[in-house]
Amino acid sequence: MxxxxxxxxxxxxxxxxxxxxGVRALVDVDVDVREHEVLAVVGDNGAGKSTLAGVxxxxxxxxxxxxxxxxxxxxxxxxxxxxxLGIAAVFQELALVDDLDVVENLFLGHxxxxxxLLDEVAMEREAWRLLDQxxxxxxxxxxxxxxxSGGQRQxxxxxxxxxxxxxxxxxxxxxxxxxxxxxxxxxNLILRLRxxxxxxxxxxxxxxxxxxxxxxxxxxxLGRVHDVFDGDASYEDLLAAMTGAVRPSARxxxxxxx
Amino acid sequence: MTTAPAxxxxxxxxxxxxxxxxxxxxxxxxxxxxxxxxxxxxxxPAFLAPENLVNLTLQSAPVGVIALGVVLVLxxxxxxxxxxxxxxxxAAVVAVGSVTLGWPVALAILAALVxxxxxxxxxxxLSTRLGLPSFVFTLAGLLFLAGVQLRVLGPLGSxxxxxxxxxxxSVQQGFLPTPVAWGLVVAIVAAYAAVxxxxxxxxxxxxxxxxxxxxxxxxxxxxxAVLSVxxxxxxxxxxxxxxxxxxxxxxxxxxxxxxxxxxxxxxxAVGGDRRAAMLAGVPVRRTVVLCFVACSTLAALGGVxxxxxxxxxxxxxxxxxxxxxxxxxxxxxxxxxxxxxGSAWSAVLGVLVIQSIANGLxxxxxxxxARYMVTGAVLLLAIIIxxxxxxxxxx
Lengths: 258, 395
Hints:
The structure holds 2 protein chains of 2 kinds. Chain A has helices at residues 49-57, 79-84, 102-106, 120-133, 150-162, 180-195, 207-213, 235-243, 252-256, and strands at residues 11-20, 23-33, 37-43, 64-69, 72-74, 87-90, 113-114, 117-118, 168-172, 199-203, 216-221, 224-230. By secondary structure, chain A is of the alpha/beta class.
């Protein structure tokens, strides 16, 4: 892969640092993701994966550094701002409102209107279409999310991120609470997103999932980019990098930005 | 469609039972209200006399308007303890403005409502910018506004509104003429039926599960029956007061806003799970501020109505137990103290329960002490039910 052929990054993180009190969650992190690309972010617990996802999704504001979209600096000071710029996220805690039903959750904050009032019919149809696309087995889109299983909730959260065809989809541990079949569905979905030209940032600690879909794998360790692998990296290499058993290779900083 | 869709919410008996258990149905509180009326009517038939029920509706309107505002702040997961004091301030502003300062009544009322908007904005800023708990700053507001009320009223402490003013006359003696009342019933039922039929047609066109024809007919007939009974029965006495019409209209508007607009959905989302709502892109701060403003404005309006009903504003207006009755009414009506769950109609039902008990016990010459104790017991019962529903949801 000769470098001049690579398209310009869609979303870039440059020198981003983030502290929570005395904890340095991210330290001078550089990451790029392009269209038609799945960028996986792995790391041990506390490596800063979710914080990085939060920065991209507008849930955390970095203390230092910047985020570039199409090469231009953007301010992601709220999830709504990120969403407006075409960056959608599925958070680890899913961020569903238990008392609202599936349709209400899917469209929360982006409801379809008909005049001044909500267009429930259009939203309900779109909800069924999306869920069918994800092969989700939700009994009724009018059931409160509280009554759904962990897997069903996950699918609802993923479906919500896909509404309005965002350019970048950030998935934080999307398969954590899923069974084998649903995990396969979500991974399939990620591949389809890539085919459709989306940039996907996939945060996970399940190395097996990543190897199946990732184009590149960034390993975070203690808040820093520890190493970068191609998607076909071996499980042992990833594990060694995640646990810090090997020193970061010289190519790290260059590759992450590639 | 790969999955067979379950029925619409509200379709079929199992669905109704599920909603009752889930705490999102008004049926239990309606049943409780009917039960209270039957018991009070059995003990003292005078309670169910049309004239007494007209009085009951007139007593309920001012505090009901305040309770409607309380429902909105409770829905968004906050509380406003100062609604009573604020209603007292509003009453004082109307009296001082129109009598002492000689303003037109409409201007004085407007000034009172503006007071409500300003207070609500202040609360909204305290809550969303400083992150203060509303329980505390509205407690401070309760004391502060009680002081403002005394200061506005001045050394006299009581100002009578002129009986001949249009405002006092329409609040005290204004009733819907019978033909107009029946015309309203017809219009409301027709509008309701039209909405139901078009919604059904749209859903069927969209290949979505829709209510059956029988269900639409049943609901429409039910609404027509309830409205007809109310109009006919109250019409046997003086009828339906303008303040009652205003209250009912506000409840309908609030209900549509809460269930059918983006803002209403934001309110329930923020009250249900503030962080999730924020992450989903809901403008949390704006939603909370708007709820405080709506609550304070409705509290001010409630005070204006109370002043009109009394024909005066004094140091006791909006004092004593007003705020407790308003908050208790919202909770008894089924709006959760924990946010996210409730309905505009709970203001109506809760106020009717509390005022029915107060009214009935007064008719029976039961003293104030017993009335407080009974109302307190009912409130406790409502909170226990709220808590049980919430616990069952968390399992």
